[in-house]
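Entry type: protein chain
Record version: 2
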Amino acid sequence: MKWIGNRISYLDDQNKTTFIITPEQIGVVKALMGAWCFMWFAIGATIIWAWLSGNIYGFDEVSQKSLDLKERQQLLLITIIFLVFWAYYFVRVGRTFLWIMYGREYLKVDKISLSLKTSIGTYGKAKEYYLENIKKIRVSVPKENSFQAAWENSPWIRGGERIEFEYLGKTIRLGRKLNPQDSKLLFQLLTNRIESHLKKKH
């Protein structure tokens, strides 16, 4: 097993090369995001419990009866809007947290294809891209101090892929949040292995 930086490991076999890219491991970020997810879940669970138990209209029968039908409909609408907002961010940030904790990018280059799998734990499906159809492999690193760089480097965002290529009219991206040096080294190694396999076929 060889390494590019401290996030990319790779292994050269006789007929294939495999890569594993791990997320950034920053303890403070993991702790803060985990605490946020727990508190956000607790807020949503409390609202859902109050709604299902009928306490969303008040915590006793007297207060419940003091609300007329229109007021109860307005309160229900506000609750639904909040829960939609809550669910969106819970799923979005929750997936990012799981990615930081258990995520991996798996790449395999053999004589037929480039296989790419983005997984969280054991969940994930590999996609294959035939080497003959891969075009314009390049490094895509946003300008330093730009809005795009700040956005993609945010711990709340899973994206920020640094290598991309064209495949049958689509742009495929990989290498989440790699630094410029690791991106270039991975790009050089990846293109070298693809070109080597293509030469053997011809």
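Comment: The chain has a mean pLDDT of 87.
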